[in-house]
Structure to design on (333 residues):
């Protein structure tokens, strides 16, 4: 009596299963942070600060990215069942199902919603960058161009995937990942550079100015970007080296990692809280009234937690150009 033994590669199968387990953990964190972000945007901050501006837009972002991420997670969970349960006796066995990932329409759906989710995430980064740079054209034009290139490459990847080609052989995917990571890195550099420049100018105007607000926001941006960037670079290196196992491991979770990084920022801004607990125990800066965008914020009235919650809306306008810098200096004096 003979029995059929399908072709197998235990290493690839382990990476696929491990990747699904990592995805489950990431989705659990993504789900919890989504609920926290939704609640934070619907309520006032604990310390009495103003509720986050653009609340409806952020609620829509949280909702749509959660729906897209959930669809992607559900489809990948279903296909994992197909690999080892429903279709385990298919020709080629589990290995063939893993390698022929794109031959199944549900996986094309998962890839599509994952890419659309990433479009929304990158669009949010662009908006933050443009606001912080006061909608400067020399920042908007190149960043928007890269964003459009990213979307174009993404569409090409989806078109190739719909033909059933093996995911590991989609060369455009590598270019897409590089552009996406490049956008995140450039965003981080532009934002932190802007914050540090404003911090330096504030110190020139006020010798005893407490610059911890800028330092905390810059640290928050860097931490959130690093979480995704490091993971994405590993994915890019594995994809370029044709390491199918690590590529599979990273591919399943990269969208959730990026979503988690974005939600961290949304929650902190919505709650008006900084990165560390020490923020709420620091002594306020010297008494100073400064005019920002037609409003006056008294730095001695309210806690640092309130200032952190309104930083994106207020402090980013401080030194858009030399004329505004002069006006702020005059207001301080």
């Amino acid at each position: 009596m003979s029995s059929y033994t399908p072709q197998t590669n235990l290493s690839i199968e382990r990476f696929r299963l491990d990747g699904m387990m990592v995805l489950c953990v990431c989705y659990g964190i993504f789900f919890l942070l989504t609920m926290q972000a939704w609640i934070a945007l619907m309520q006032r901050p604990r310390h009495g600060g103003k509720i986050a501006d653009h609340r409806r837009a952020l609620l829509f972002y949280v909702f749509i990215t959660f729906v897209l991420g959930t669809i992607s997670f559900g489809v990948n969970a279903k296909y994992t069942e197909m690999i080892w349960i429903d279709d385990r006796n298919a020709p080629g066995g589990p290995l063939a199902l893993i390698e022929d990932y794109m031959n199944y329409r549900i996986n094309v759906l998962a890839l599509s919603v994952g890419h659309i989710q990433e479009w929304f995430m990158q669009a949010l980064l662009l908006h933050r960058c443009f606001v912080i740079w006061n909608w400067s054209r020399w920042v908007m034009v190149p960043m928007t161009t890269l964003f459009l290139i990213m979307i174009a490459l993404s569409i090409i990847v989806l078109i190739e995937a719909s033909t059933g080609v093996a995911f590991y052989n989609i060369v455009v995917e590598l270019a897409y990942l590089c552009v996406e990571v490049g956008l995140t890195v450039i965003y981080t550099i532009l934002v932190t550079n802007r914050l540090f420049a404003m911090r330096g100018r504030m110190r020139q105007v006020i010798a005893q100015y407490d610059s911890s607000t800028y330092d905390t926001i810059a640290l928050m941006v860097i931490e959130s970007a690093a979480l995704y960037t490091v993971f994405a670079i590993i994915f890019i290196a594995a994809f370029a080296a044709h390491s199918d196992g690590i590529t599979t491991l990273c591919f399943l979770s990269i969208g959730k990692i990026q979503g988690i990084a974005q939600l961290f920022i949304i929650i902190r801004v919505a709650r008006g809280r900084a990165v560390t607990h020490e923020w709420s125990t620091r002594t306020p800066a010297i008494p100073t009234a400064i005019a920002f965008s037609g409003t006056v914020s008294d730095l001695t009235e309210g806690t640092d937690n309130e200032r952190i919650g309104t930083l994106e809306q207020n402090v980013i306008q401080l030194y858009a150009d030399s004329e505004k810098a002069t006006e702020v200096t005059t207001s301080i004096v």
User: Anything to note?
Assistant: Confidence is low (pLDDT under 50) at residues 274-333. Strands lie at 289-292, 295-298. The CA atoms of residues 257 and 330 lie 45 Å apart. The two ends are 95 Å apart (CA to CA).
